[in-house]
Amino acid sequence: MQMFAIFIWITSCIAMLSKSELLDIQQKTTDGVIGINPSKFNEFCQGPRDYFIVALLTDVENEAGCRICQQFAPVFEKVVGAYMDGYRDTGKAFFAVLDYSNIYQHHHDVSLSTVPQVWIYPPINSVGYSADYDSKSGDYSSCLGEITEHLTYQVPESLPTRSIQENSLEFAQFLAEILQIQLYLKSEFDMSHFISYLLGLFLLTQVIRKRRDKIRKRLAGSYIWQVFSLVSIFISISGYNFCSQRGVPFLPTNEKGARMFLSGGQQYQFGSEVLISIVVYLSLAICVTVLICIPMISNPLQRNFGALLFATFLFLGYNVLTSIFIIKNPSYPFNFINIPIF
Predict the structure, then answer these.
(1) Whole-angstrom distance, CA of residue 320 vs CA of residue 95
(2) What value does the mean pLDDT take over residues 330-337?
(3) Mean pLDDT calculated for residue range 118-140
(4) CA 68 to chain centre
(5) Per mean pLDDT, which range of 98-107, 214-223, 224-233, 235-244 is the poorest?
(6) Number of Cβ within a 10 Å radius of residue 326
(7) 93: closest CA among 105, 79, 107, 110?
């Protein structure tokens, strides 16, 4: 990762740089990351601003042999790349990298216990920026001091045991919630998986071709095909593949020990959401099927009562679905009744 391909030796007037000038600097980098001399970082992070600064404190030159620093580097690069793909010209955030060995030479009040760390400096409200993560304009002796208002992303200890995609997904979710944006990560093409799936599909088609007469006789007049189709549909729309590929927890707990059935945001989900979505969609399908069959009832009283009853169930079920979706996307407007069952 060419994080230090462009080094910005910031002078004392860096705080006067406008957002458009910073955007121009950012776009001249190869990966969207600005390399900054730690001795001038104070001038960079202090002063009025309406944007975030995301600073990675790490062992850039690997002088200390920090293996996890080298493992987190492609994760940081991947998430920054996702930001640049979707928000390159917005100036909502600027990304910087600082070498920890140089930090201690210029900032004696820094107490970094471990690296790498990601420190996120929110906008300063003196420029009228309205956001949930808004800091007060302060006169700090060092932007790298512990008293400085910033948010910290602690690199998980499980980083070496997981893939770059899994680690990038976790960091992207953390950053997206702070920046109030959506980050879309590009999946890496795995040729070995592609070849294995291609060979498996080829062998399956050959078996079906040779035994198509026997298979046709077994499926004719049975419910096997219908059940298989329904199961395949529900698995496809429930996000089962996402959960199985990333090994997400089924029912995690929050900091208070309470069970979490739904995760916020559309880029992540828990294992429990697979069952929740299947139950909701299956209930809606049953209501629709019953309503289609109700006109065949000969008794008018039973027909009208059944139509009214299952129409009510369908209405409530749909509002349960939209209420769940609002938890994933709070800006969703099409909800008549909010039913907070989770």
Answers:
(1) 40
(2) 84
(3) 54
(4) 22
(5) 98-107
(6) 16
(7) 79
Pick one of 1.10.1240.10, 3.50.50.60, 3.40.30.10, 1.10.230.10 as the CATH number of 7-179.
3.40.30.10
Look up tokens 């879309």; give the residue.
184
131/54 Cα distance (integer angstroms): 16
How high is the pLDDT of residue 11? 33
Instruction: For the chain, give the number of residues.
Output: 342
Helix (H, G, I), strand (E, B) or coil at 97: strand
Q: What is the DSSP string of 182-232?
A: ---PPPPP-HHHHHHHHHHHHHHHHHHHHTHHHHHHHHTTSSHHHHHHHHH
Residues of the chain within CATH 3.40.30.10 domain(s) are 7-179
| Contact status, residue 107 vs residue 38, Cβ threshold 8 Å | yes
> What type of residue sits at position 89?
D
Residue whose entry in the numeric block shows the structure tokens 């002796």: 141
**Are residues 156 and 142 in contact, defined by beta-carbon separation less than 8 angstroms?**
no
The pairing of strands 52-58 and 33-36 is unpaired
Give, in degrees to the nearest 5, the angle at Cα 292 between 287 and 296: 125
HSE-up of residue 246 (Cα within 13 Å, Cβ side)? 21
- Tell me which amino acid residue 21 is: E
Helix (H, G, I), strand (E, B) or coil at 13: coil
Measure the CA–CA gap between 137 and 48, rounded to whole angstroms: 7
Global pTM?
A: 0.56
List the structure tokens of 109: 């009040």
Task: Tell me the two tokens of residue 20.
Answer: 């458009």
